[in-house]
Amino acid sequence: MKNIHDDLVRVFESKTALKVLCGIGIMLVALLIFYAGVNVGFHKASFGRAWGENYERNFGFGPDHPLLGTDNFPNANGAIGKIIKIELPTIIVQDKDNTEKVVLLGNDTKIEKAMTSIQQSDLSVNDFVVVIGSPNDQGQIEAKFIRVMPLGMPVPPTQMPAPIQQ
Fold first, then answer.
1. Residue 18, H or E segment
2. For the packed helices 2-13 and 15-53, what is the interaxial angle rounded to 10 degrees?
3. pLDDT 10s digits, 59-118
4. Of 115, 133, 132, 113, whose CA–CA distance to 123 is shortest?
5. What is the dihedral of CA 87, 89, 94, 100, to 10 degrees?
6. How far apart are CA 85 and CA 90, in angstroms?
7. Is the entire prediction scored with pTM above 0.85?
8. pLDDT tens string 104-161
9. How far apart, in whole angstroms, are the C-alpha atoms of residue 131 and residue 120?
10. Is 64 exposed, middle or buried (0-12, 13-18, 19+ CB in 10 A)?
11. What Å distances lie between residue 42 and 46, 48, 118, 137, CA to CA?
């Protein structure tokens, strides 16, 4: 036993063995980094592919309605329609299927009209908005992003304003 122990000590004390062990260690670290890069790249590519395949469905675009599709927007996480009531920090949006959605605005809610950021106080009744957020336990949408659509945008038939009575 003592001979085997002495032989092992001599092997590990030699400079050649130290160089070989360092080389193997460096190779293992390089392989681990490569493996991590492949996994990260695979997951990013998978997400990008799935996001691209579902872009139209997720953002309300479709072949029948190129900008505001009829059944394509994920209603659990957003709304498309006009604002019918404002009591900040809450707004009520009449969704495309004529349901009323309660939208909660937070301090971190980003609101844009065209390419300009606006404040919550700049929202007004009858503004046509696209809301993206996440549902809460009370059935409300906690808004992360609201885009106020400019006048002249195509509006789905369920969102057509009533004719003005004179």
1. helix 15-53
2. 70
3. 555 555 444 444 444 466 788 889 999 999 999 999 877 888 899 999 999 999 988 899
4. 113
5. -90
6. 8
7. no
8. 999 999 999 988 899 999 999 999 999 999 888 888 899 999 999 876 555 454 444 4
9. 13
10. exposed
11. 6, 10, 38, 34
Residue with tokens 């809460």: 136
The dotted CATH code for 75-159 is 2.40.50.140
Q: Which structure tokens are listed for 125?
A: 């009744």
Any idea what the Cα angle at residue 108 is, between residues 107 and 111, rounded to 5°?
95
**Cis link prior to 89 (omega < 30° from 0)?**
yes
Domain ranges of the chain: 2-53, 75-159
